[in-house]
Amino acid sequence: MERVRKSCGFPNGVEVDAEGSKGGLCMAWKENTPISVRSYSRRLIDAFVNDQVLGHKWRLTGFYGSPYAREKEESWQILKSLKEDEGQPWLVCGDFNEILYGFEKKGGLPREEQRMEYFRSVLQHCQLFDVGYTGRWFTWERGNLPETNIQERLDRGVANTSWLSMFPNANIKHLVHSTSDHCPLLITTNPEKYIQRSHAFKFEAWWVLEESFAAEVKNLWASTPGNLLQKLNYLQQGLRRWALETGKANNRTKKALTEKLTD
């Protein structure tokens, strides 16, 4: 791992060896990047990043959740133990080996609701929120045939409100995987340096929970002429408008119900 890290131009780093074909962690950084590693184990690498542009320090944790059901409890207890001062900006990213909701899996046996609920409760305990993503929705895939293919969103970035306020335009992109069955995550804290923000499309998990979502997608897709790229571009624009209108309607409903409760 060290040889690979240095060959990629990262002279500094820390590695945790894999256990057979499972696990293995590496955090690497360039020579002039001020990073201080706090601790590491087979489940995580925890570090502080001294952001010289913003003049602030924030916490970065690379996390690997166990793929085995019998070790899930250990993984979540370790993550919960990492919670510290809520005022410290904190980003946790990596392979959690778990999904938050049933719609984050396609193919194979459905995930037990209890397992997803436990994962959600751990993130709630740590006050960590899904950063979201751009690109295709899944990060792990197995099976080449339609009847055996399974896709899941096992990898993600989650952050507390301090980090999200520090980097309000942060973006996580699911890149295309090659040799691994997991796709890489590209985390950009300042996407304006690379892309126009108005063109960035971020899928929100709550959309799928709205009753009108599926019908809206079908309607947008069916009513759009042109090739695949044109239809996808129109779909993105349409979903942005739909999300804005739906969010406003939900806020009005929430406000009305709150007023009734206070009467």
Automatic annotation (TrEMBL):
InterPro entries associated with the record: Endo/exonu/phosph_ase_sf, Endo/exonuclease/phosphatase
Entries under Gene3D superfamilies matching the protein: Endonuclease/exonuclease/phosphatase
Pfam family membership, one: Exo_endo_phos
Record's keyword annotation contains Nucleotidyltransferase: yes
Domain Endonuclease/exonuclease/phosphatase: 19-164
One function term, GO molecular function aspect: RNA-directed DNA polymerase activity
Record key words, sorted: Nucleotidyltransferase, RNA-directed DNA polymerase, Transferase
Protein name (record): Reverse transcriptase
